[in-house]
């Protein structure tokens, strides 16, 4: 059974956030270290667009989180927490944020993208040219790098796809180089 089929069965063929049945798709909740049903949810095109493009956010659309934040699935609760954090300036999301329950691991996952932090507190990762890096971006190495703990050398020009950002240090990102997940210093990469 594919991830899409499992999510359709799990959700009853409805968006797990707003219950819409239009334009449903698999949404992998960043940062994604492994793909699968545990890091994904079924969402409509409207929800995905507003999650990925904060400028398109319609606060009234997200009143649906009053129901979906009680989901039994952590990925749904994580996205609900992130959207409520983004919208807390509207007033009504603050009450919902006070009620939502996430265990320590889920809360750490929810905070992994920096949603909920004030702009001044966010750690900004930049590549060698000063371009801002985001979770899920692809980068290319600008220099040969020895992979610590192995005899492997990552060659200049190697593409690293679907990076994850270190939330505590702006100089570190994580990504797979060959079969090995490794930490890479941002001054040695360029965004693709």
From TrEMBL:
GO terms for molecular function: hydrolase activity. The keyword Glycosyltransferase does not apply. InterPro entries: PhnaA_N_proteobac, YjdM_C. Residues 6-52 form the PhnA protein N-terminal proteobacterial domain. The keyword Transmembrane helix does not apply. It holds the Pfam family YjdM. Transmembrane segments: none annotated. Keywords: Hydrolase. SMART domains: PhnA_Zn_Ribbon. It comes from the Bacteria. This is Phosphonoacetate hydrolase. It comes from Cellulophaga baltica.
């Amino acid at each position: 059974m594919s991830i899409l089929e499992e999510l359709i069965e799990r959700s009853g063929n409805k968006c797990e956030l707003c219950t819409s049945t239009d334009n449903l798709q698999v949404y992998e909740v960043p940062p994604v270290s492994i793909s699968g049903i545990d890091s994904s949810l079924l969402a409509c095109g409207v929800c995905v667009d507003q999650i990925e493009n904060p400028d398109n956010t319609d606060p009234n659309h997200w009143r649906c989180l009053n129901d979906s934040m009680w989901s039994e699935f952590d990925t749904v609760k994580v996205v609900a927490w992130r959207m409520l954090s983004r919208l807390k300036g509207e007033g009504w999301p603050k009450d919902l944020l006070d009620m939502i329950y996430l265990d320590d691991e889920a809360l750490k996952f929810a905070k992994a993208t920096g949603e909920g932090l004030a702009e001044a507190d966010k750690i900004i990762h930049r590549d060698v040219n000063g371009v801002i890096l985001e979770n899920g971006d692809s980068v290319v190495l600008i220099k040969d790098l020895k992979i610590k703990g192995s005899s492997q050398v990552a060659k200049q020009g190697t593409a690293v796809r679907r990076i994850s950002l270190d939330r505590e240090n702006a100089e570190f990102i994580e990504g797979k180089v060959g079969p090995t997940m490794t930490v890479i210093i941002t001054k040695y990469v360029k965004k693709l």
